[in-house]
Design brief:
This protein is of the alpha/beta class. Helix content is about 40%, strand content about 15%. It contains 13 helices and 8 strands.
């Protein structure tokens, strides 16, 4: 019986015969490709392309390492000093002021006075009364007064972004620029909250913090950096987590009122703020710039420090004090 042009109409024997014939031809085609890419060349490519480019924490510049007594709390900070414009680093909920090892020297070398501080209850800062956590933006303002700083660039990651936004709403004249990296922003909006629940179902909170916050490429390719990040996270909250109050209502309407230059950043593998969410956030600012960093999760400042530093330095360089 003749075989129809349609495979399903063929006799079983012919179907098998055509299948094996097709397989042989496919194999020959693959063999031809292999000739173009000999095994030795393929092996060399694998050997010369590391899973993750080595990026050790650079040598740190000298800093003032001190405790600021702000009255009802005492906060630890480090300060590179100098006469350059001030950049304040505001850490994530899983880290502390000790987690900016890739930024400290880079920003100081670029001529900025870099300062990082730990919020209440975080590494080296007072825990205080958890039931009376204070207002984080007020703590920041008192810290700047303690250091005689009138204006600064704010660079905030994740949960730190909530307090940087709050500060910018309360003290816009004191903020030269605002960088918000991988932050959910703390916005209260029903549709936004529903979307966040779709992104992170109930079981998400039970996952290890490093799995949630470090991208898969980084965890697979940089075990040493992975361990360093986990050690910093374990030391970040020695007495439990303090949840400071926010003075202003964080909603889309208030975000539209922000006139401070804004840079929104995220990693393309961020489970909290994927690129689509970053674009949604940007649509609610008057004129925010956006950067998506490749092969980074929730902690692009740690996972891809060169890309992070370059993006932020280029941004704040456009918004110097006048």
């Amino acid at each position: 019986m003749a075989c129809s042009p349609h495979l399903q109409d063929c006799e079983p024997q012919n179907s098998r015969r055509n299948f094996f014939k097709h397989s042989l031809l496919t194999g020959a085609a693959i063999a031809g490709v292999s000739e173009l890419w000999p095994q030795a060349a393929m092996a060399d490519t694998i050997k010369t392309t590391p899973m993750w480019p080595a990026s050790p924490i650079p040598a740190q510049v000298p800093v003032t390492d001190a405790i600021a007594d702000l009255g009802d709390t005492r906060l630890w900070y480090w300060d590179t000093g100098g006469n350059g414009e001030v950049v304040i680093f505001m850490h994530a909920g899983s880290q502390s002021a000790a987690g900016w090892g890739y930024q400290q020297a880079a920003f100081a070398s670029a001529g900025y006075r870099a300062i990082g501080y730990s919020r209440r209850g975080y590494f080296k800062s007072d825990l205080g009364d958890i039931s009376n956590p204070g207002v984080a933006s007020d703590d920041l303002d008192r810290l700047l007064q303690h250091l005689n700083i009138e204006r600064a660039h704010l660079v905030a990651v994740a949960h730190g972004g909530y307090f940087a936004l709050d500060y910018s709403l309360s003290h816009p004249a004191k903020v030269l620029s605002l960088t918000l990296a991988s932050s959910m922003l703390g916005v209260r909006d029903d549709a936004y909250s529903i979307m966040q629940k779709r992104l992170r179902p109930p079981f998400f909170n039970d996952l290890p913090v490093d799995f949630k916050e470090l991208g898969p490429s980084y965890r697979a390719g940089n075990p040493e950096g992975h361990d360093q990040w986990k050690a910093l996270a374990e030391a970040a909250r020695p007495g439990g987590r303090v949840m400071p109050e926010i003075k202003n209502e964080l909603n889309w309407k208030n975000l539209k009122s922000i006139k401070v230059p804004v840079l929104l950043m995220t990693g393309d593998a961020d489970l909290y703020v994927p690129p689509s969410v970053l674009r949604l956030q940007a649509s609610h600012f008057p004129a925010a710039e956006t950067v998506i960093i490749k092969e980074a999760g929730h902690c692009s400042n740690w996972e891809q420090p060169q890309a992070f530093n370059t993006s932020v330095l280029q941004f704040i360089g456009k918004h110097i004090a006048t």
